[in-house]
Specification:
The complex is a heterodimer of chains A (101) and B (488). By secondary structure, chain A is mainly alpha-helical. Chain A has 3 helices and 2 strands. Chain A has a two-stranded antiparallel sheet. By secondary structure, chain B is of the alpha/beta class. Chain B has 3 domains: 5-227, Alpha-Beta Complex (Amidase signature (AS) enzymes); 257-299 and 378-481, Amidase signature (AS) enzymes, CATH 3.90.1300; 307-362, no CATH class. Classes of the chains: A mainly alpha (101), B alpha/beta (488). Chains A and B meet through helix 1 and helix 2 of A and helix 10, helix 11, helix 12, helix 13 and helix 14 of B.
């Protein structure tokens, strides 16, 4: 039986991957919770799946095509109006790290 | 309490009742009970009144508004509605107004339905009690101290309380069927691909399906006929028209072979009264001419474990889009990465963060094959076991929910206890099959204090992909035999 417990450092690493600025309290709570859920989820490893193909999707769909014709798309200004910040017809974002000034 | 959608539409189309009168009756229910129940994130009464007038004007002109003429419908608040706030019960979408309507929303409106509001849900549909909402919980109209189930608890409660005649929800692991069961209404998860997901805000894309809530099996069939069928905007929608369901509804079950799934019925954690209801429904079906027996679908026991790897993995990817750039909330930071991370921490609630973390971990380097890969192979085993069962049986039966409605707060402390609510419903999502919940009798909750009312039990009918026609016939037969009497 593999050990499914996580260290706080591992949880911090996953939070960085997930782009979540978790607080110390959240990290403290999540560390045992994720371990407990993973231990339950790991019951799947009890099944012998040698030679079994994985299912990623319930429908046997391959390459769904549509005719290559232009259709009206969403209105640009209407879409930008949903954003927290926009400028000159584009989404406005803070500085990208390492960008030249 | 609750007008049937079929009756409302027939009356409105014939000019016997006005859409306005029908709407006002439902708005009166909302006015009387919504403060207690909190089914809605947003009630859209003014829009609904305008729409009702349009329907009545169309009838007066001699036009037919369609098969849902004047029927009040509630929409789960993860279905996009153009210009009307759509929140997923999350702070992260606060203030966002979608620039388009979901296909299912277009279809119910085109059929003459009147949308009365956007219903509460567990944030991003992650939960089984509607307690994980940024806007507070919904309460079960049958007992306000208890949950309505989830994640589509607002839609289930809206139908149960008579706020709407019918409602739409979404079902990723039981989120239509389980709240339907707990609130005493009918709830359907159609075959994967039977209903368009265009405009349904994604949780786990290989599992999500939009499905109907209704007060009767016939109304659920009517609503599924309206929303089903191919949609070019959803490349995973099945390229066939929606099958007719109402025409065959009363054909009965004579000669059908019906299996009771042992692993989902005879297992630990199923309330004895719930198991007894499934057996009573089976014996009623046998009296009506069906052949019923127990069947083992062994790998369904592993459905919950596989689901809690697959669904969070897909969610962690789908919810990456909430980055403070394109929608809703932004919390400023020194650079983009910091802005993203702060926005996501402030905007997502606990359960959503938990699942994003779980999914990110399950997909991360070194663990992918042991967790996500293995869960996908178990998904194949579940599909194979169902295929074997459906060689012998037309449909299968089980409980929908292991218990009747539980009290608010009873399961919020331990995520795993909450996840166990979906043990009977998850296998159909993993397989992409159809399934539905039908009310059948009532029971007192285990250890209930005196004065607690009896609460509804739901029996689940499971069918293979595209098995809706037979599934609905069986559901109708269960409904007619139900101790509460038949809805005609």
């Amino acid at each position: 039986m593999t050990d499914h417990s996580l260290t706080r450092a591992e949880v911090e690493h996953v939070a960085r991957l997930a782009r979540l600025a978790l607080t110390d309290d959240e990290l403290d709570a999540l560390t045992p919770e994720l371990g407990a859920i993973l231990e339950h989820a790991a019951q799947v490893s009890a099944l012998d799946t040698a030679g079994v193909e994985p299912t990623a999707h319930p429908l046997p769909l391959v390459n769904v095509f549509r005719p290559d014709v232009t259709r009206p798309s969403l209105d640009r200004d209407e879409v930008l109006a949903c954003a927290p910040a926009a400028e000159d017809g584009r989404f406005r974002v803070p500085r990208i790290l390492g960008e030249a000034p | 309490m609750n007008d049937s959608a079929l009756e409302i539409a027939a009356d409105v189309r014939a000019g016997r009742r006005s859409a306005r009168d029908v709407l006002e009756e439902h708005l009166a229910q909302i006015a009387a009970r919504e403060a207690d129940v909190h089914a809605f994130n947003l009630a859209t009464a003014d829009d609904a009144r305008k729409r009702a007038e349009e329907i009545d004007a169309a009838v007066a002109r001699g036009d037919d508004p369609g098969p849902l003429a004047g029927v009040p419908v509630a929409l789960k608040d993860n279905l996009c509605t153009r210009g009307i706030p759509t929140t997923c019960s999350s702070r992260i979408l606060e203030g966002w107004r979608p620039p388009y309507d979901a296909t299912v929303v277009q279809r119910v409106r085109a059929a003459g339905a009147i949308t009365v509001g956007k219903t509460n849900l567990d944030e991003f549909a992650m939960g089984s009690s509607t307690e994980n909402s940024a806007f507070g919980p919904t309460r079960n109209p049958r007992d306000l101290s208890r949950v309505p189930g989830g994640s589509s608890g607002g839609s289930a409660a809206a139908v149960a309380a008579g706020f709407a005649s019918i409602a739409l929800g979404s079902d990723t692991g039981g989120s239509v069927r389980q709240p339907a069961s707990l609130c005493g209404v009918v709830g359907v998860k159609p075959t994967y691909g039977a209903v368009s997901r265009y405009g349904l805000i994604a949780f786990a894309s290989s599992l999500d399906q939009v499905g109907p809530f209704a007060g009767s099996v016939a109304d659920a069939a009517l609503l599924l006929e309206v929303i089903g069928g191919h949609d070019p905007c959803d490349s995973t929608s099945i390229a066939e028209p929606a099958p007719p369901l109402l025409a065959d509804l009363e054909r009965g079950v004579d000669g059908l072979r019906i299996g009771i799934v042992e692993e989902l019925t005879d297992t630990e954690g199923i309330q004895p009264d719930v198991k007894a209801a499934v057996e009573a429904a089976a014996s009623a079906l046998a009296d009506a001419g069906a052949k019923t027996e127990r069947v083992s679908v062994a790998s369904t026991m592993y459905g919950l474990s596989a689901y809690y790897l697959i669904a969070p993995a897909e969610a962690s990817s789908n919810l990456a889009r909430y980055d403070g750039v394109r929608y809703g909330l932004r919390v400023d930071g020194a650079d983009v990465a910091e802005m993203n991370a702060r926005t996501r921490d402030a905007g997502f609630g606990r359960e959503v963060k938990r699942r994003i973390m779980l999914g990110t971990y399950a997909l991360s380097a070194g663990y992918y094959d042991a967790y996500y890969g293995q869960a996908q192979r178990v998904r194949t085993l579940i599909i194979r076991d169902f295929e074997r069962a459906y060689e012998q049986f037309d449909v299968l039966l089980s409980p929908t929910s292991p218990t009747v409605a539980f009290e608010l707060g009873a399961k919020t402390a331990d995520p795993l206890t909450m996840y166990l609510n979906d043990i009977c419903t998850i296998p159909s999502n993993l397989a992409g099959h159809a399934a539905m919940s039908v009310p059948f009798g009532e029971a007192l909750p285990a250890g209930a204090p005196s004065g607690t009312p009896a609460l509804p039990i739901g029996v689940q009918v499971l069918a293979p992909a595209r098995g809706e026609q037979v599934m609905f016939r069986v559901a109708r037969a269960i409904e007619m035999a139900s101790p509460g009497g038949s809805r005609t």
